[in-house]
Here is the input.
Amino acid sequence: MSEKAKVSAVGLTKKFDDLLVLDNISFDIAKGEFVCIVGPTGCGKTTFLNILSKIWPATSGELLIDGEKADPKKHNIAFAFQESSAFPWLTVEQNIRFGMEQKNLPKEIINERTEQMLELLELKEARNYFPRQISASMESRVVIGRSFALHPDLLLMDEPYAQLDIEFRYHLEDAVLKLSKMTGSTVIFVTHNIEEAVYLAERCIVLTNKPTTVKTIEKIDLPYPRDICSKEFTDIRDRITDYIKWW
Ligand SMILES: Nc1ncnc2c1ncn2[C@@H]1O[C@H](COP(=O)(O)OP(=O)(O)OP(=O)(O)O)[C@@H](O)[C@H]1O
Ligand SMILES: [Mg+2]
Here is the structure.
């Protein structure tokens, strides 16, 4: 484990009864890094996030945050999962304020960050609407705003836009990149979509089929915003696709 690692998987192994899912996985994620995890369906991506966030025990090995056993009570972790939705009984603005109010942050900070999120995520006009009155893409932005407003140390995202169409996705991804730089949060973003991973990640961890190991870790050294038509971009995308070939 390196000194500055935010997250370290050390020989991480997870079994469900006889089913070996994660098989002796080791890697480090640096503080402030934006990492994507890609891998075939059922290889254990969500399981990995669950061990980080919900105190699911590992079968063996360790998953550490700042060198200590992952503990959601101690570590400042936020989530945006595919099934995440805005709270239906709160307005857009109240949704964004919610987590900060739960944490009893000072009122001025809550006000300032709320305005910043509404502005950056283009939700100002919708601030007084309830989730049922807005589109799916706007609701995804509310979930993202609610997560980033907490300035989490670690933000876990599990296919947060799987149900959105491609045009909205790029828009949201740009917002996520901007927010991650602004808050300095370490982001772990799980996706099936290799193009999305290459668009977002500083490093992309590619997993194999079960029993799952790390196939490769690609460093993606392209400036943001990335040009998805450039040769550098498509070369990396194609290389990762070759590693996986699960279709
Ligand atoms: N609570 C559980 N009990 C038993 N088996 C489980 C449990 N949770 C997950 N599994 C199994 O572990 C494996 C990994 O599941 P997981 O949901 O982590 O995969 P994933 O990589 O997130 O897949 P997807 O890309 O489809 O979201 C699967 O074979 C799944 O059936
Ligand atoms: Mg999953």
DSSP finds seven helices and ten strands in the chain.
